[in-house]
Every structure is written in C-alpha cells, then in structure tokens.
Specification:
Strand 3 and strand 4 form a beta hairpin. Helix 1 packs across helix 2. This protein has three domains: about 70 residues, Roll (Structural Genomics Hypothetical 15.5 Kd Protein In mrcA-pckA Intergenic Region, Chain A), CATH 3.10.290.10; about 80 residues, 2-Layer Sandwich (Alpha-Beta Plaits); about 80 residues, 2-Layer Sandwich (Alpha-Beta Plaits), CATH 3.30.70. Helices cover about 20% and strands about 35% of the residues. The chain is built from six helices and 18 strands. The chain is an alpha+beta fold.
Length: about 250
C-alpha cells in the first residue's frame, strides 16, 4: 500500500511517498518485482544503510538511499507527455497480440505508463508518465475533469441529455456525467460531455442506454491539459503549470 506523509526540514515541508521496496527496485529497471523480492529475502538490499529482509518494507524512491548489492539506485527523472492517441491503439505498455500500444509513440528511454485508459476504438488525449503519484490523482474519481466529443447515431434530444447528468443505473452501476451539451446537429449529432467518474466504457454504455450508439469518441481535455491542434499520433511534453495543476498543487 502506498501512502504519503510530510515533515518539516529547515522550515521546508518534505513530502515522502512510500512504496513497497520490491516495486521501487523493479521500477528502477534492476530486475523484475519477483526477483527483487528474492534479493530482499537474501539480505542484498539496504535502505539508508540498514539491511531490509521484510517483503512488506516500504521506502521513498526520491529521498531514501536504496542499494542493491551495494549499488545505489538512482530513480529515473520524472517525465510527462500528452499524446493524441489514434483509433486502433491500445492504452497499454505491451500487447500479446502485437497490436500498437500508446507507449510506442513516445521517443524516450523512461519506463512510461498510460494514465488511465482510452479504449481501443476511441481516440484523443491520453497522458503518459512515470510519476505514479500524479497518475493516481488523475485517475481517482472526482479529482480531475475529462472532456469528450462524441458522435452518435441519430440525435439525442434535451430530455435524453438530462438523463446523462441526472445519472443512470446500468448493470448495477450508477453512471453520471457532470455536463452534456450538443455541439453539432446533423443526421448523426456531435456532443460534448464532461466526466469525473471514469468508469469502464462509461460514455458508450450511457449513450447505448439512450438508444444512440457511439460512432466516434475522442477525449479533448484532461484537467488543464487540452488536446488542441496536436496531430493524431503526435505528442508533446506537459508544461510545468499543467503538471502542477494535475498534481493539485497550489500556486506558490
């Protein structure tokens, strides 16, 4: 279990993020998590000069001195990217069927992970990072707004749109949009929908319930990060302001 606490050092507040030791070792690229557990049990891992043999032991990768066989682990620098995911790409780091995955689009040696998911047939904004703390906050329900543009079969009238924001029970789950409005009227209409829940296939399930199958779905914003004119398949680094706001940090 990961948790956060803080204390004061020379008048500054130091935030410590604790993770299981074997996870830190694996994330540093030393070995697999299972092998890291063996190294811990063999007494080959130290934290701040103390040998650790307990698999439940935790440490802070950014602030503790962690050594494996006497070699100091150096956490890789944190990196943050926004990618315009094409349709037909998995929000994953690998795929047993060798389908395209989002991490393959980013040119970096860092071990990146997608923040949340955007399903195989959907497109648009997805974040990738190796900052687990930021990823947890962005994917936690109720913390960060996600904005979508959706084209559906036919057109849902205002009464149906109200059902999205009032909430719907589907397969025993209560699904609810924060806001929903029409963008473009035609034979098949476009809508803008804002979510803070992030349930699996949420928008497709909700529009199916209304009788309007989703024909196209793209995410255009995650909190302060907007897709803008980023081309399909292209990516950019997040700005320091975007990172700070995604973390929920107050402006200093």
């Amino acid at each position: 279990m990961q948790w956060v606490f803080s204390y004061r050092v020379f008048g500054l507040i130091l935030i410590r993020v604790l993770q299981r030791l074997q996870k830190i070792i694996a994330a540093a690229g030393v070995t697999s998590r299972r092998k890291a557990e063996e190294l811990i049990l063999q007494g080959r891992v130290t934290v701040n000069g103390r040998v650790v043999r307990e698999l439940g032991a935790q440490a802070d990768a950014q602030h503790d001195h962690i050594k494996v066989d006497g070699k100091l682990l150096r956490p890789e620098p944190l990196e943050y990217y926004a990618l315009n995911k094409p349709r037909g790409v998995l929000s994953s780091v690998s795929d047993p069927e060798n389908r395209a995955v989002v991490t393959a689009f980013i040119k970096t040696s860092a071990r990146l992970y997608p923040v949340g998911r955007l399903d195989y047939h959907s497109e648009g904004l997805i974040l990738l990072t190796n900052d687990g703390q930021l990823a947890r906050r962005v994917t936690q329900p109720g913390q960060v707004r996600k904005v979508y543009e959706i084209k559906v079969k036919g057109c849902a009238d205002s009464k149906k749109l109200e059902k999205l924001t009032r909430g719907m029970i589907i397969d025993g789950e209560r699904l609810q949009a924060l806001d929903a409005k029409i963008l473009k009227v035609g034979e098949n209409c476009w809508y803008k929908v804002v979510l803070v829940q992030g349930k699996n296939q949420q928008l497709r399930r909700m529009f199916d319930q209304l009788g309007h199958a989703v024909l196209r779905l793209r995410r255009v914003a995650i909190g302060p990060v907007e897709l803008g004119k980023l081309p399909v398949g292209a990516y950019r680094k997040l700005t320091s302001t975007e990172i700070r706001e995604l973390r929920g940090d107050r402006k200093k």
